[in-house]
Amino acid sequence: MKYVNDLSLRKHLSSQIESFILAAIYHFNLRTLKCWFLCWGCWVFFLVSCTSHNEKSLQDICSNKLDTISFQSLRDSVQNELYRFKTELYLPAYVISSDQFGQFYGRLVLEEPITAKTILGAVLETDMTGTSLWYPSGQKVYVNLKGLYADHKTTGLSIGSVFASFGNLSIGRLPALSAQARLSLSCDPIIQIPPKARLLDKLSDLDLQTLVSIDSLQLDSNLAGQSFAVYEEDSFRAFYDTKGEKIMLRVSGYSDFRDALLPTDWVRITGILGKKRSQYHIEIRGLQDVAPYGM
Fold first, then answer.
1. pTM of the model
2. Which of 140, 175, 216, 239 lies most in the core, judged by the most C-beta atoms within 10 Å?
């Protein structure tokens, strides 16, 4: 009799455990299903909202309904002091930088449309990486300046957020998502941006943050046999023209071509003009920007 009772007890417990497991599986699946539907619904809502917003923006951009500002007006607004844009203004520009080969980290360099009388440039400071995938060189964009700060110092026009350092306000990097939200792609196709041909003794601050091309340059003989850059260091290499005028080639120590040897023959260098203190430098996007130049 005791055996029968024990057997019945085991069967009862087994049945209770099985019911508990089935109930747990059912409720787990139900919760999972609810979560899946909830996530799916949120994603659809987000997608529809973004699509509607982008379609409206795209319509405004393609029909030229945006309130725009020129680079010259942007430069005039700054007047050598930090300036914050409080109204919604869009800056039409072409991307001229590229981080494809490890250059221009945290920067998107923009140039005025080639229809402008005087082509100016500006750099957008940002935490974005892989910008060449989303904003390749030659892509026209519109930058929403509302809430952004602009400054114009010896380095040229800069756009971004603001941060304080030792009581001084400076242009800082925009978070990646914030930068993406402020950049709208144009309906225009990607084009090849022609560089401005320049001589070293004719460079001016109006050329800062623009794409320039300089012929008849030769490496400082003391640098023969050296690489483009030292690993993890921003490296500056001196080049001279036929008149003895000097310009520095700036290369990131994280670039893909940092270990390549510097050319010793005459070359033409195409890149974005920068300045450190009183010395101009040129920053290339890749090795394709350094081409042989017959003398």
1. 0.79
2. 239
